[in-house]
Input
Amino acid sequence: MQENQESIKKISGMYQEWFLDYASYVILERAIPSIYDGLKPVQRRILHSMRELEDGRYNKVANIVGNTMKYHPHGDMAISDAMVQIGQKELLIDMQGNWGNVYTGDRAAASRYIEARLTKFALEVVFNPKTTKWQQSYDGRNKEPIDLPIKFPLLLAQGVEGIAVGLSTKILPHNFNELIDASILHLKGKKFQIFPDFLTAGLIDVSDYNDGLRGGKVRIRAKIVQEDKTILKITEIPYGTTTGSLIDSILKANDKGKIKIKKIEDNTAAEVEILIHLVPGSSTDKTIDALYAFTDCEVSISPNACVINQQTPEFLSVSDILIHNTNNTVDLLKRELEIELNELQEQWHFSSLERIFIENRIYHDIEEEETWEGVISAIDKGLKPHISHLIRPVTEEDIIRLTEIRIKRISKFDLDKAQQYIESLEDRIENVKHHLANLIDFAIEYFKALKTKYGKGKERKTEIRTFDTIDATKVAVANTRFYIDRAEGFIGTSLKKDEFLFECSDIDDIIVFKSDGTMIVTKVDAKTFIGKGILHVAVWHKNDKRTIYNLIYRDGKNGPAYQKRFAVTGITRDKEYDLTAGNKGSEVLYFTANPNGEAQVVSVILKTHQRIKKLKFDLDFADLTIKGRSSKGNLVTKYPIKKIELKEEGVSTLAPRQIWFDEEIKRLNADGVGTLLGSFKGDDKILTINKKGEAKLVSFDLSNRFDEELEVIEKWKPNKPISCVYFDAEKDRYFIKRFLLEETLSTQVFYSLEDDKSSIMVVSTDYLPMIELVFSKLKGVEREPEIINVEEFIAVKGIKAQGNQLTVNKLKTIKVLEPLPFEEPEELEESKEEVQPTLFDEVEDDNNENLDE
Output
């Protein structure tokens, strides 16, 4: 009985032991790549199997899969799927047939229909049996490599993703040529940086990449261009998406009302082409922003570089991985050189022995010998006087090899050729020794040779950019109607029988002011109770300093009246704020919300009182300074007010808005980032000129987007002429023109590039531009440069005019000189007051960082 009890084992102990075995197996043998060759076991076995079958011709993938099953203890589908993934990365496998489409996500054809062979790059870089360490396959019948001796940072070139038990890895692919450049920089002892690059191209913001460590992230965007006023075209998609998944996300956003599109077309074939047709009247700029905000046109990926290093999972940065791979490549090159040196020395040793054996006719010494031992001894004795210069002692194996030399070879032995061969071996030995002595230089040349041989066509596809942060509430389409029930004090989107207020987005914030002097900001919802006495309801935008609220309130039930002006730039959502002095019974007597800081003039009429002679007086809100919403305000009167009437609509008291242009992200801002374009108000416009010969007049709306063709961007001044020098290939002449733009047209073409040879040489928006013409040599004679005052050379004409011929001579270049001084007329500014946020506002803005905006 006691023996039976001792044989019992607790289930919990068995579970723990088996689970750890299983977890270790999944981590080491399935999901996580090795840092040495950058491959998972299934990938390594596929490549090893392909090398076994390699004969220069294509093999059926089904045959390769079958051969790989000798090494991989899992199903054929796992092998074929892994092989397709390797092939689609276009580096190691030369594919033939339908291998799927990385753009559309279409699967590859069945393995019996497609073929593959190793690329020349793989054959050169991945394999070397002499430097490979081997192990038994899972069934003990075959040998497979522990790691392939890959002399290249393959792990970073291909990228990898895997999920193990309690562990995962995600290493993004990087550019082939940039990895080689970084390896060379490391070998030279210099710093380097590497960033992801994807076959699907797109745009990438690597500001938070954090060298691929855990906690970092990259933002990837589709490339969207404006085809015309109603069509947007997607030509590149983010990594990890397909055209199908991208279109699905756009359709879902449209169904939810986040964006408005008419229809979408997928014309993707060899290249990505998705056409998005917009509804008439839609803003293309805001729609592009909305696509980035609400669809998979922008995705965020968090890398997690986990690798197996000496049978242990390890988290590294991509720089650490590259350094490790580069150092490993140097070690492999060293081992190859040492093996080559040993082989060359052995060839030299035996060739020298052979020459001594034949030249000195030592083979005659064995004619009288009757035993094998005697033969060996005779040859050894005959060699001894001639072997002092050899690099190692002569062994019995060497002598046996000499006895195996055929009589035909001895009879045709050419001493001069033998000596030349020995000398060539000596040269090769010295060369290898030189490489070993200068191993780092040899490795650098090796990497350079790889880049020269295989780097063509592997230029960076993904453009590195700094992205702007899109405020979803500003680009979301107004997709719902908002109502108010004043009698009961409710607001929301479901009160369809009550008073309609406005259209808004379902992610907007709503600001509400009440007659008791309180204010609250809440999210759009179906039905929200606010309370009776609602004065004003509107969509609220965080950090809005242009909307100014004018308020007159009575402090307490019978207290004095105060007036104030304030902006609401930051709040805590669903918290009620008191805009009065806080005394019970306070009441709002006058309230307006002014989107551009307007200040009204009002008439205050007092109740009849024996001490008051003047019962009516005017107040101008423009006389008040804009302060924080918590300020008490200025005293209006301590006497009871009968009513307040609007006497005069006000004008804005805010200064014209200063606008900057951020060159990195090609966007406007009011935050002082980039180049100051100027102060804007009302209908002021921005002038842009691109490389295509187009001038555009656009508003200073911060949502405007600007393309990469941009050459000039500045505040438009209607009376400031534009000067253009262009080369007309058809007439083989240079022309110059000056013109003004028409205010009524947004896009105006001042020169149409009808052929590839015509070109715009100079575009200037200076009042008095100066240029210098540098002429080409004529019959070996140089002509002095000519300086042109453009304002004197040509008058301002229409935009369609051809202009004047600049010169009949061939030009080497046209230099733009400093313009002549010109005193611009001063601009009249409507006011000088800006919103000054109080300390109270700033503190609450900081608190908003934790809100779900």
User: Anything to note?
Assistant: Residues 265 and 275 are 5 Å apart (CA to CA). The chain has 19 helices and 46 strands. Residues 828-853 have pLDDT under 50 and may be disordered.
